[in-house]
Amino acid sequence: MSGNNSGDFSIPVVERSGDMLMELGRRVPVFAQGLQLQAAGRTAEARQVFLQLTERPEVTAPSLHQLGVMAAYEGDNLRAAGLFEHALKIEPGEPLYYCSLGTVFERMGDLPRAAAAMLNLAVMLQTRGQHADAMPLYRRILALSPLNYSAWVNMGTGLAWMGQSREAVVPLIVGVILFGRVLPEARDLGRQLVDEISDRLPELTAALATLPEGMPDGRLERLEEVLQTLDKALRTAGFIDATVMALDMALKLAPGNALARWNHSLACLARGDFATGWADYEWRWVWDQFPEPRRILAAPQWRGENLAGKRIYVWGEQGFGDILQFTPLAHILRDRHGLADLVLEVSSPLTGVLSTALAKDGIRVVPRPDNPHMFSVQESFDYHVPLLSLPHMLSLRVADLPLLPGWLTLPEDQVARGRTLLPPPSGRRRVGVVWAGRPQHSEDARRSLPLAHLGAVLDAIPDADWFSLQVGPRAGEALAFKGRLHDLSPKLQDFIDTAAVIANLDHVVAVDTGVAHLAGSMGKPVSLLLAHSVDWRWGIGDTTSPWYPNHRVHRQPALGDWLSAIASLKEEHAQYGMPVTAPASDAPQPQASPGPKPAKPSRKASVAATAKP
Question: Are 612 and 393 a contacting pair, CB within 8 Å?
Fold first, then answer.
């Protein structure tokens, strides 16, 4: 143990704390004198300096710490531990004191207390959001106490927070296995998880090979909370079947856990289990952190009652893409149930395009009100229903997809207006691009394409004119590609402007954002660039979408690997060698992309007629 107690630890946060002693010495010369005497081996004189400094409140705790360091060097570990604990009572946020206490307990052979001291420090750091600083501590704890349950699960939680989902899976599953040595149900789950993913995660096999037999050390927290963290890590890493296993156990332990039920719905939908997925999706309204308010409106929520001759208010929820994806169900609801009137409420930026597209079908579109507990129109309704509850109420299944291919069409005057927003045709293909979603989205950092890769995207399709459909904070990034990318953002004030432009394009390249759904709803070919994380609507590893026949999916094979997704995009578009002229209208055009030709919009309901009770 050195004078600043950093020599025994390759732990950055502790090394920085050692620098704190040097800084304190610059501000308090007497303290610096004590450090110099201690470093020179003149411990008796150094002790006198630090004893006197304990009377000064601003340096009491560090002085007690240095007295403890000297006591430890002299072999008086018990006295050193008492001094470190005293320093911690005065300054409980100082990492150096925790590690010094842990070191002296280790020298005493008291490994449980050594691990507990460092575990307290690691937990404190994670509470502050310093997850990276906690990782070396957990490795040190597990070297001392390899069966320490809290160290395993907290390490996994920290890695998940740091976005290292694949790495997080290993310690979290080890935590489940340790819990299984106490709880038989968890023992079975641990075996199932290992059987499911160990061949794809050799790091897990390696960790289990060195895990000793015996009961777990430390306090066992609620397993269902660990399983929810494991769910997120497994889902992000692409292990969807394992995710369902973990959540099935979480729901067995706590069947009323709304977050676990919500996450279970997303995993089931990704697997194509729509029956379970849509039923569990309704638990979003029970989860107290769901971003949409649970609205109290002046009409009962529709739960399967006879709607013949009734008036219903369908209100859109969540993001722009969600509303666009599920608007066809409003068609189906009206046609299947013989409604007298249906009003569809949507986010304000979608009002123009959906009002225009749905006017011919007799569906009124209104903007979302400021007060979520009010209708947007001064009228009475027999029922209301959230738009994304319709899949459950209408028993939507994978076999029912696509719903109404190419349902979003614009009148000719809007298509002609979109033509004026573009430069004159050059005879080359016209391709729109969107590389970023709304920054408010919880997964935006993963789903949005880094600017550095945009050049590769532009080069992916030869002999094409590129048009930026990007709006919002990142629209200005198009300037970096001036001359190669036409920036349309000043002309795109609303989704109807974007739709009018897309009607005159040959293709759209987009990340997972509202424009991808808009172009898909219009029947346009879309190259969709996806992060490795699984979003239920795009399935697991699929290159096509059951929702949009003209979508081609280019998915990261590993987290952050956009270059491979771009390489796949280039391969898709290698077939485009013949220049074409952009269509003069949004009438169906022959497409060069692979896959089925988009069907004409149908107004016939395609999902099961029986509503859920």
Answer: yes
What phi and psi, each to the nearest 5 degrees, are found at residue 366?
A: -130, 155
Domain range for 346 is 311-396
541 and 507 housed in the same domain: yes
With b for 16 or more beta-carbon neighbours within 10 A and e for fewer, the 415-428 pattern comes to bebbbebbeeeeeb
List, for residues 127-183, the tens digit of each pLDDT value: 999 999 999 999 999 998 999 999 999 999 999 999 898 999 999 999 999 999 998
Helix (H, G, I), strand (E, B) or coil at 143: helix
- Residue entry with tokens 């239920």: 536
Average pLDDT of the chain, as a whole number: 87
pLDDT tens per residue across span 210-233 = 999 999 988 887 888 899 899 989
Rounded to 10 degrees, the C-alpha dihedral 24/30/35/39 comes to 150
Residue 268 and residue 247: Cα distance in Å, rounded? 10
> Are 353 and 384 spatial neighbours (Cβ–Cβ below 8 Å)?
no
Are 568 and 419 contained in the same domain? yes
Residue 453 and residue 374 share a domain = no
Number of domains into which the chain is organized: 3
Same domain, 385 and 459: no
In a domain, 278, yes or no: no
